[in-house]
Design a protein that fits this description.
alpha+beta; four-stranded antiparallel β-sheet; three-stranded antiparallel β-sheet; 2 helices; globular; binds FE2/S2 (inorganic) cluster
Length: about 170
């Protein structure tokens, strides 16, 4: 367990659950049983690679305008990173504890909460490194196309205050 991340473990669990459902019921019934767990995210263009500077946050919003977030180019490959160097990541900037807006500290490269001082590591998939929250920071699933356009196509955790990430 120590060798795999929490998210990787949870993904494995989700796949195992989906697989078990598919084995228990076959055919159209199986598809119907698994389908409700899937969420269709919008594929939104957030920025272009050329818009980013190493260690300078770029404000964005995803999956809608009421969900503030940030793109970060970290200068070296990181978990979930995209682009030529695998160093571009995106996160919600709403604290998963009680919804305060997070700010980026470029000195120690963390996203920080002024509410109760939780800190999240964008170089480690948004892992909480200190504080009150009970989940890590939601990270965007990103894709970069041939023109350098950065598209968000999903979020790996539930955004604060929502019953679903897609309305
Ligand atoms: S709202 Fe961020 S730590 Fe409480």
């Amino acid at each position: 367990m120590a060798e795999i991340g929490r998210r990787q473990f949870l993904r494995g669990g989700a796949l195992a659950t989906a697989g078990a459902a598919a084995v228990a019921v076959s055919g159209p019934e199986a598809r119907a049983a698994v389908a409700p767990a899937r969420v269709a995210y919008p594929a939104n263009r957030l920025a272009n690679i050329a818009d980013l500077t190493v260690n300078e946050p770029l404000d964005v919003a995803y999956p809608d305008d009421d969900a503030p977030g940030v793109l970060l180019k970290l200068g070296h490959p990181v978990e979930g990173g995209v682009g030529p160097e695998g160093d571009v990541v995106g996160f919600s900037t709403i604290c998963p504890h009680k919804g305060y807006p997070l700010f980026y500290n470029a000195e120690d490269r963390t996203l920080n909460c002024p509410g109760h001082f939780s800190r999240f590591d964008p170089e480690a998939g948004g892992q909480q490194v200190w504080g009150q929250a009970t989940q890590n920071l939601p990270q965007y699933v990103l894709r970069v196309d041939d023109d350098g356009e950065i598209h968000a196509e999903g979020v790996d955790e539930l955004l604060y205050g929502r019953l679903s990430n897609v309305l």
